[in-house]
UniProtKB/TrEMBL annotation:
Record-linked InterPro entries: PTS_EIIC (IPR003352), PTS_EIIC_3 (IPR004501), PTS_IIC_cello (IPR004796), PTS_Sugar-EIIC/EIIB (IPR051088)
Originating species: Ligilactobacillus murinus
Lipid bilayer topology: Multi-pass membrane protein
Molecular function GO labels: protein-N(PI)-phosphohistidine-sugar phosphotransferase activity
Matches recorded under Pfam families: PTS_EIIC (PF02378)
This protein's name: Permease IIC component
Principal place of residence: membrane
Recorded superkingdom: Bacteria
Length: 477
């Protein structure tokens, strides 16, 4: 009867719930978003490596790098990879959109980058503004040591004529603001990438292009084909920039951040956001749909900016919740919600390797042993299977939720630090914890593994007994 109810419920989900969700997930925009953001991942990982070196979890090593002057080089590598995540995002999304529409993709991606830069004020504050005053950062040398305090800087500036003071503290024009190239520009980058991808391909399909004679080399002709769509998009973007400047005395990126990104990041960074994310990953997987790809693609739009914001704080040595650090980041998702694979199935693996009596469990445990260390658990998802399996549904659904809740709380109460760097998602547990948050994070990951064992063990034991009975019945036939 229970299995019949489960089958009826599964049929309802597959017939009524999943089709509209999958239709949404497979729209052109969502596919471009999901696949386009992947282009940023290598730079996030590479930049994180240098950020880890610059903020090494062992204080003595960190200080040694500063003393020998290498911290500035590590920071340079971080600033040109992870810190400009929005550039990789806007190019990647527009590129994938055009590629999927069978259009010349690179010109579309470069047009999106041009628009992304055009829509922001090319102005940055004078570094003296943040250096001056009692709470100012002061002036540092190449190794990051303060050579002039904020008070000392202010005292020296005050001795100068007012005209020179105004000149020194006025904003610097003609400069690209690094703030918008990082996490704070992510939602704007997504919007620009999608709109440019859509409008560029629409014009290209409509034949808005300059056609050159056949004798002209293809690589040259392709660039002329891109000229009209790119020119129209850039012109419209200039008018949008002018509208925001004249009407609101701001730029579009600042407006998007204030109206959209800040509220959405707040929602994603909440306890409720963490629990929904943890539940939805296994919800999709339970019905045979790749929950990791779906939630990683959609959630990444908000989680990656959270990680980037934390990385910027870590680079300044200010990664604390009091300074605005986020709890729920992309690393929270990868290294806790999906630790050892969707459903956090390490507990099930431990049972199959140490206590299972059925041939099916023991055999699949051996197959999963190595992949499980590297956070890959498809052998369990489809081999046991966990998909549509009522025996293991409770721990499969609840383990990620319990881990998301407890991890949020230990970070919230300061027992474990927030994460500011990324590690490859295949990095084994405990090692990944150390890399992204030091020994405290590594210790907490070890505790999470024990939570998984405790959650799965009683249910796996009952299911193993059922499998043994099935195997015995089959042998008796």
């Amino acid at each position: 009867m229970a299995e019949q109810k489960q089958s009826s419920f599964g049929a309802f989900i597959n017939a009524k719930i999943l089709p509209p969700i999958m239709k949404f997930v497979n729209t052109k925009a969502i596919v471009a978003l999901k696949d386009g953001m992947v282009y940023a991942l290598p730079f996030i990982i590479i930049g994180s490596i240098f950020l880890i070196l610059n903020s090494f979890p062992i204080t003595a090593v960190q200080e040694w790098f500063k003393d020998i002057g290498w911290s500035v080089f590590f920071n340079q590598a971080y600033q040109t990879t992870f810190a400009i995540i929005s550039i990789w995002t806007v190019i990647g999304i527009a590129y994938v959109y055009a590629r999927n529409e069978k259009q010349e993709a690179l010109p579309c991606g470069l047009t999106a980058l041009s628009v992304f830069l055009l829509l922001q004020n090319l102005v940055v504050n004078s570094p003296l503004v943040s250096a001056m005053g009692k709470d100012g950062a002061g002036i540092t040398d190449a190794a990051g040591k303060v050579v002039y305090t904020g008070t000392q800087v202010a005292e020296q500036i005050d001795k100068l004529p007012q005209v020179i003071q105004n000149y020194l503290t006025s904003p610097v024009t003609g400069a690209i603001n690094m703030t918008w190239l990082g996490g704070q520009g992510m939602i704007a980058a997504i919007i620009v990438g999608l709109l440019v991808g859509w409008s560029y391909t629409a014009m290209a399909k409509a034949g808005w292009k300059i056609t050159l004679p056949e004798q002209v080399p293809a690589n040259v002709a392709n660039q002329f084909s891109a000229m009209i769509p790119s020119g129209v998009i850039v012109t419209v973007s200039m008018l949008i920039y002018a509208f925001f400047a004249k009407a609101f005395n701001t730029d579009m990126l600042q407006w998007i951040y204030d109206v959209l990104q800040a509220p959405l990041q707040g929602l994603s960074d909440s306890l409720g956001g963490a629990l929904i994310l943890a539940f939805m990953v296994v919800f999709f997987w339970f019905f045979g749909v790749h929950g990791g790809l779906i939630m990683g693609g959609i959630g990444g739009a908000f989680l990656l900016p959270n990680t980037a914001d934390n990385a910027a704080l870590l680079a300044k040595g200010e990664l604390t919740l009091q300074n605005g650090a986020h709890i729920v980041t992309n690393e929270f998702y990868n290294n806790f919600i999906n630790l050892t694979g969707s459903g956090i199935t390490i507990g099930l693996l431990v049972f199959t390797l140490t206590a299972a009596k059925s041939v099916q469990f023991r055999s699949l445990g051996k197959v999963e042993a190595v992949p499980g260390i590297f956070n890959i658990n498809e052998p369990f998802l489809f081999g046991i299977p966990l998909v549509m399996n009522p025996w293991l549904a409770i721990p499969f659904f609840m383990t990620p939720v319990v881990v998301a809740l407890s991890t949020y709380l230990v970070i919230y109460f300061g027992l474990v630090p927030p994460t500011g760097v990324a590690a490859p998602w295949t990095t084994p547990p405990i090692i990944s914890g150390f890399l992204i948050g030091g020994w405290k994070m590594a210790l907490w990951q070890a505790i999470v593994l024990l939570i998984s064992v405790a959650m799965y063990w009683p249910f796996a034991k009952k299911y193993d007994k059922y499998l043994c009975q099935q195997e015995a019945a089959n042998e008796a036939k």
